[in-house]
TrEMBL record:
This is Dephospho-CoA kinase. The lineage of its organism: Bacteria, Pseudomonadati, Pseudomonadota, Gammaproteobacteria, Alteromonadales. Catalyzes the phosphorylation of the 3'-hydroxyl group of dephosphocoenzyme A to form coenzyme A. ATP binds at residues 11-16. It comes from Pseudidiomarina maritima. It catalyses: 3'-dephospho-CoA + ATP = ADP + CoA + H(+). It holds the Pfam family CoaE.
Length: 205
């Protein structure tokens, strides 16, 4: 199965773009959705991850009902960088495993792996092609501020923690320019969809 990784910084338009690929019948594996579900207590993986967190940080890391206390953990890793490192080492292999399982289950002609941190977390290793949704920093900031309940310095802090535009573009096989109107995306997605269908056929040969 051909795997196309889609990435871009905060507010670049990844979801807008992957929705257009989904409209063409392409399945989307979303690394963000998987990352949020890693502590889902109804799954075996979630139980394992919750037990590991409780063993590491004590019962204060869990709520009375056994779910993860996300607010406590967020605050704790904010002030304890080594705890953040430990948490990444726990969750990243679990996230990777779930991604691989979902990619293997996909049945569309090719599959998209959408991940804001595709480059930073080396998920590019799982992809045949990397598609970067590119936007200049002015549009990126404006769109994020319009969409989210955040202020400019919070957006800047998130942008600073992500790969730079240059680093992301260096990893790209294809680029979608999202500096224009949303309507300008449709043509770009259709052209790439045709390309990926051809590459998927060539890979299957
Ligand atoms: P994040 O990683 O932060 O979740 P994202 O990369 O998935 O963001 P989107 O949610 O698709 O980005 O887009 C960010 C915001 O910008 C959304 O509100 C979306 O509707 C809007 N947007 C996307 N593309 C355009 C465009 N070309 N013109 C104007 N607004 C746009």
């Amino acid at each position: 199965m051909l795997v196309v990784g889609v990435t871009g910084g905060i507010g670049s338009g990844k979801t807008t773009v992957t929705d257009l690929f989904a409209a063409q019948g392409i399945e989307i594996v979303d690394a963000d959705v998987i990352a949020r579900s890693i502590f889902d207590s109804t799954s075996a993986t979630g139980q394992q991850a919750l037990a590991a967190v409780a063993a590491k940080f004590g019962p204060q890391a869990l709520l009375a009902d056994g779910e993860l206390d996300r607010a406590w953990l967020r605050q704790h890793i904010f002030t304890h960088p080594e705890a953040k490192q430990w948490l990444n080492e726990l969750t990243h292999p679990l996230i990777r495993q779930q991604i691989l399982e979902q990619l293997a289950q996909a049945s569309s002609p090719y599959v998209i792996l959408s991940a804001p941190l595709l480059v930073e977390n080396r998920l590019t290793q799982l992809c045949d092609r990397v598609l970067v949704v590119d936007v200049d920093e002015h549009h990126q900031r404006q769109r994020t501020l319009t969409r989210d309940q955040v202020n400019a310095s919070q957006v800047d802090a998130i942008m600073a923690a992500q790969a730079s535009r240059t680093e992301r573009l260096a990893a790209a096989d294809n680029v979608i320019d999202n500096n224009g109107e949303p309507a300008a995306l449709t043509k770009q997605v259709e052209r790439l969809h045709e390309l990926y269908l051809r590459l998927a056929l060539a890979k299957a040969d």
